[in-house]
Amino acid sequence: MAENSGTDPAVETNIEENAVASATIIKVTVKTPKDKEEIAIAEDSSVAQFKEEISKRFKAQQDQLVLIFAGKILKDGDTLGQHGIKDGLTVHLVIKTAQKTSGAGSSQTSASSGPGPSQGTTAGSADTSPAGNLGTPLGTGPSPTPTQPPNILAGFGDLSGLANLGMGSANFMELQQQMQRQLMSNPEMLSQIMENPLVQSMMSNPDLMRQMIVANPQMQHLMERNPEISHMLNNPELMRQTMELARNPAMMQEMMRNQDRALSNLESIPGGYNALRRMYTDIQEPMFSAAREQFGNNPFSPSRTENREPLPNPWGTTDTTATTTTSGTATTTSSTTSSTTPSVSNPLGISSSSLGNGMFNSPGMQSLMQQISENPQLMQNMLSAPYMRTMMQSLAQNPDIASQVARPSFIEQQLMQQMLQMFAGGTASTQTPEVRFQQQLEQLSSMGFINREANIQALIATGGDINAAIERLLGSQPS
Amino acid sequence: MDRHDSTFGVQLFIYDLSRGMARQLSPIMLGKQLDGIWHTSIVIYGEEFFYGGAGISSCPPCLQGGTMLGPPDTVVELGNTEVTEEIFMDYLSSLGETTYSGDKYRLFEHNCNTFTNEVAQFLTGNKIPSYITDLPSEVLSTPFGQVLRPILDSIHIAPPGGNVISSQNNHS
């Protein structure tokens, strides 16, 4: 082969003009789907010669070889130089399999070969939208099976479901609010999310959660207002505990009930009641207003504002005394079902029931919970202020309760529980209690509890649990 | 080769699997901005080809409602190729038997984007945009990514609505 005989003048690629000089050997990598080989070949050889080499190396027939470079099929008559194949470059090789596959392929291609040229030309004319080319029914054998297991959902599933929720917002706060709303309207979702292993392992990494929480602008706002939050966030043990709680709703419920009981027992201690009340108002005030900003409107119905008005008192005013007389008992029912009219020592009409379960069910506290849940230590730190000491003193006289309260995470655990309860159970509180507890109310009235107001109170306090509500109603009867 | 010298357009369909969540949450969760979790597929000859947990699959491109991912986030023109469908299918079959079988799928190292990158090079000589192929290493270089790695490794993304290409099939 003489030098550069195959070099056409009409060379469009960037080849060196005189790639002559006998045979400069270049090493070209030939890559098949299965493997690749390096082939040394003269720079100016033709494709046919190249294929010869390849067929030797790959043990295939020359006419089975299809060489592709830069999207072009290398024809036998071309030269390597024509296509710009230089040292170190990779050429793709497809070894055509036996005729039968190409037979099937050709049936397909024949189906498409009719409109094929038109396809080719439209493709050539720079308009390559596949939609345009789909005049061809490519008749792809079996129609796509939609039953293919969506593995993607196994992993990302619920999270991507979350992702679909109102994703239009670019503002993270908006996003968060939307997520809240979605969560509120779909209590199932939270448990689904919790079950997602992705989420769970995320939760078990306190550092991660800390990062996430810190990055939240609202959190940062809070942190400015109360530097102790950052203390909390730096305490991995606490975070871990909190995450444990968040992960396990059943455990939460359990703890909630225990601590509701404990807290309501507190009221009966001399001085403790006032301390609780002070705690409630001092914390509730700033938190509630903070929460209000976040929530905009109070999402809960107006009938459920915090207990500033006296709750209706169907059992008469004797209940205030009933509260204190039941101090010794461990049961919470009697001490928490009663409602109190405003009195001198209780100007806000905050009844014991509100301080017990009711306190944590009120919308103010619930939104507070949500804030608190992001910084459990906050509550504790704030509580380590004066009134806590008063309470502690009172508690010191009663070792039982002291031990319950003395647990450092007491308060925030409680609040965490309430938060989750709110999410999981109280999400329906966007409706009025009457609507929420419609079914339970009917049941109660059919059982003979005709006092609708009392029923509602009881149901609210127990979160819709009929049996507990009945207990309350029964226990509240002055015996 | 009896085919005349026609060329076929090659497109790259890019999907964001997180549907925008990555763009918003990545600064928080990862500490760096990732605009999306990219899944890609090659569209040629009026069909969409992609690699997933089930191997190489194909389906009518999303514009006709193929995969469940909906319309792509971005479409990139990779150029034209002379490779015919026949050759391409041969090529895919070989690939599907070897390096791109379903069980070789690895979310980080050997995923749909690896596949499309290789096919793009085969068809046109061009690679796919680097921000896509760089994604796994970007994620893995964050602490969060490291934590999640064991979980993510077990996820196989296999968008349904496609047919698997294998040498037994007559080119679905």
TrEMBL record, chain A:
Residues 101-142, 316-341 have a biased composition (Low complexity). One of its GO terms (cellular component) is endoplasmic reticulum. One of its GO terms (molecular function) is polyubiquitin modification-dependent protein binding. Residues 295-304, 342-365 have a biased composition (Polar residues). Residues 101-155, 293-365 are annotated as: Disordered. Residues 26-96 form the Ubiquitin-like domain. GO terms for biological process: autophagy; DNA repair; ubiquitin-dependent protein catabolic process. SMART domains: STI1, UBA, UBQ. It is found in: Chromosome; Cytoplasm, Perinuclear region; Cytoplasmic vesicle, Autophagosome; Endoplasmic reticulum. InterPro entries: STI1_HS-bd, UBA, UBA-like_sf, Ubiquilin, Ubiquitin-like_dom, Ubiquitin-like_domsf. Keywords: Autophagy, Chromosome, Cytoplasm, Cytoplasmic vesicle, DNA damage, DNA repair, Endoplasmic reticulum, Isopeptide bond, Nucleus, Phosphoprotein, Ubl conjugation. PROSITE patterns: UBA, UBIQUITIN_2. Residues 431-476 form the UBA domain. Homooligomer. Binds signal sequences of proteins that are targeted to the endoplasmic reticulum. Interacts (via UBA domain) with GJA1 (not ubiquitinated) and with ubiquitin; both compete for the same binding site. Interacts (via UBA domain) with ubiquitin and with polyubiquitin chains. Interacts (via ubiquitin-like domain) with PSMD2 and PSMD4, regulatory subunits of the 26S proteasome. Interacts with ATXN1/SCA1; interaction with ATXN1 inhibits polyubiquitination of UBQLN4 and interferes with PSMD4 binding. Interacts with HERPUD1. This is Ubiquilin-4. It comes from Cyprinus carpio carpio.
UniProtKB/TrEMBL annotation, chain B:
InterPro entries: PPPDE_dom, PPPDE_sf. Keywords: Hydrolase, Protease. PROSITE patterns: PPPDE. GO terms for biological process: protein modification by small protein removal; proteolysis. Its EC number is 3.1.2.22. Residues 8-153 form the PPPDE domain. It comes from the Eukaryota. GO terms for molecular function: palmitoyl-(protein) hydrolase activity; peptidase activity. It is an enzyme of class 3 (hydrolase). It catalyses: S-hexadecanoyl-L-cysteinyl-[protein] + H2O = L-cysteinyl-[protein] + hexadecanoate + H(+). Belongs to the DeSI family. PANTHER family: DESUMOYLATING ISOPEPTIDASE (PTHR12378), DESUMOYLATING ISOPEPTIDASE 1 (PTHR12378:SF7). This is palmitoyl-protein hydrolase.
